[in-house]
Amino acid sequence: HPEAIEENTIASNIHDRHQLVQSFINSNLLFALEAKDQDHMTTPDGNGELPLHTALENNVTLGSIKLLVKGNPLALQSP
Predict the structure, then answer these.
(1) Are 37 and 68 in contact (CB under 8 A)?
(2) Helices 62-71 & 19-35, crossing angle to 10 degrees?
(3) Are 5 and 32 in contact (CB under 8 A)?
(4) Do 6 and 32 contact (CB within 8 A), yes or no?
(5) Whole-prediction pTM
(6) What is the chain's pLDDT, residue by residue, as a tens digit (79 residues)?
(7) Residue 3: in which H helix or E strand, if any?
């Protein structure tokens, strides 16, 4: 659940989890932290894309997409 990762309720016992699960949680935790940075979420990169667009191109998990949408809902609008 992206909300559990966003609220950091999973990270406290991450060392007890299997390596693949750890990798998954760490990846999503990075997206959760990224989503909280409003400047980052609303600033296009060198290609003119927002973090949500880059994530979609890279086929990240649905949970990560949800976190990024929550961080910048306006990224869903087309120009």
Answers:
(1) no
(2) 20
(3) yes
(4) yes
(5) 0.71
(6) 566 666 655 555 556 667 777 788 788 888 888 999 999 999 999 999 999 999 999 999 898 999 999 999 999 986 6
(7) helix 2-6
